[in-house]
Amino acid sequence: MKSNSFTKEEVLTFAKKAYDLGIATFQIDSSRCALLVIDMQDEFVKPGWTPYWVPGATEIVSHIKSLINHCRLRNIPIIFTAFSHTHHYLDRPRTGSLMPNRFHQFGKEDPSWFNEGKIWYELAPMQNDIVIHKPSYGAFYDTPLETILKNLEKDTIIICGTLTNFCCGTTARQAYERGFKVVFGSDLTATDDPSLQEPELKVLRKGFAKVMSLSQIIEELN
Asked: What is the pLDDT of residues 8-32, one digit of tens each?
């Protein structure tokens, strides 16, 4: 490769190829993996129950269920996360309530929303699964997730769930910064604006994760 002499067209082409076609070079060892199922809870998955419903999340339930079942067969730990009422809300980022995604136009929220953090019934955790109740987007923020993964001796996380560009994407970035290998499900995640799905995948693909489909992940785990 040339050094100290790159045209504008060349560097833009390099970037575009990395966004569109980049593949992280780490290998996937199923014995070192844990599956993170991010926020597949009633508030986001149950049709019409809240203004936070993500129709795309409801549509990917069957894909996520297939991956969960496959991971169980391979003894890969399943870790669910849910956004819920924790620590009297004192563990929240201070400006969280000021963000537009709180949908203030609907008035005061139903107190049953984001209280229990119940996982959608089709994906209900089993006795040996782990459920982490988190106070913000990323699953590592003020939770025991990193300690749990280290105690399980897992250095690779597979991310599925919702929302792609909020909780899932933030978790991927946090994991990357903590030295974990990240596998991100392209058809196992969903967001509330489908036009933003691929742009988020592109960013993650270039700099944070190995972005793969359900069939590709299962093939690698096998």
From this structure: 999 999 999 999 999 999 999 999 9
Residue 63, pLDDT > 80, answer yes
3-state secondary structure of 32: helix
Residues of the chain above pLDDT 90, percent: 90
Domain span at residue 86 reads 27-95+112-221
Domain with residue 51: its CATH number is 3.40.50.850
Residues 6+ apart with CB under 8 A from 95: none
Distance CA 145, CA 38 (A): 12
Q: Which of 47, 29, 45 is nearest to 37 (CA)?
A: 45
Long-range contacts of 110-114 (CB under 8 A, 24+ apart): 110/50, 113/43, 113/50, 113/52, 114/43, 114/83, 114/84, 114/85
State residue 4's pLDDT score.
78
